[in-house]
């Protein structure tokens, strides 16, 4: 998913690391030291997603699967899945899986 703002902040710290997903949903938070963090994923028209107490260990990359939900309740809530990278030192790709049942329910004009 493109243009998702991803941020990490250590509790009690003013320092924040931020990135924005590209057209393939990839992003990289760079130079994040080991420690415990609260992660935020935000995009317009979607409810923000927050994950607390994420531990980053020395020399490790994290891979966290997240879900963003639309803010609208009608039509029914749409789930978009992202396979997000918190700290990534190599090339990666992510995608969105849309099942046939969802496609059949999307109104066409």
Structural write-up:
- This protein is mainly beta and 109 residues long.
- The chain has one domain: Sandwich (Immunoglobulin-like), CATH 2.60.40.
- The longest helix has 6 residues, at 100-105.
- The strands form 2 sheets. It has a 4-stranded antiparallel sheet with strand order 2-1-3-4, with no helix packed on it. It has a two-stranded antiparallel ribbon with strand order 5-6.
- It has one helix at residues 100-105; strands at residues 5-9, 16-20, 35-42, 49-56, 62-69, 79-87.
- Could you give the order of strands across the largest sheet? 2-1-3-4
Mean pLDDT: 79
Number of helices: 1
Helix content: under 10%
Task: Quickly give the CATH architecture.
Answer: Sandwich
CATH class: Mainly Beta
Topology:
Layout: E1 5-9, E2 16-20, E3 35-42, E4 49-56, E5 62-69, E6 79-87, H1 100-105
Q: Would you summarize the structure shown here?
A:
The protein has 109 residues and is mainly beta. The chain has a single domain, classed as Immunoglobulin-like (Sandwich). The chain is built from one helix and six strands, in the order E-E-E-E-E-E-H.
């Amino acid at each position: 998913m493109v243009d998702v703002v991803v941020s990490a902040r250590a509790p009690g710290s003013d320092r924040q690391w931020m990135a924005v997903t590209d057209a393939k949903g990839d992003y990289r938070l760079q130079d994040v030291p080991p420690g415990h963090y609260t992660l935020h994923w935000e995009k317009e028209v979607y409810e923000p997603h927050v994950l607390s107490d994420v531990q980053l260990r020395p020399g490790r990359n994290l891979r966290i699967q997240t879900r963003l939900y639309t803010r609208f309740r009608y039509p029914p809530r749409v789930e978009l899945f992202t396979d997000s990278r918190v700290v990534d030192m190599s090339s990666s790709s992510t995608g969105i899986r849309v099942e046939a049942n969802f496609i059949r329910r999307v109104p066409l004009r």
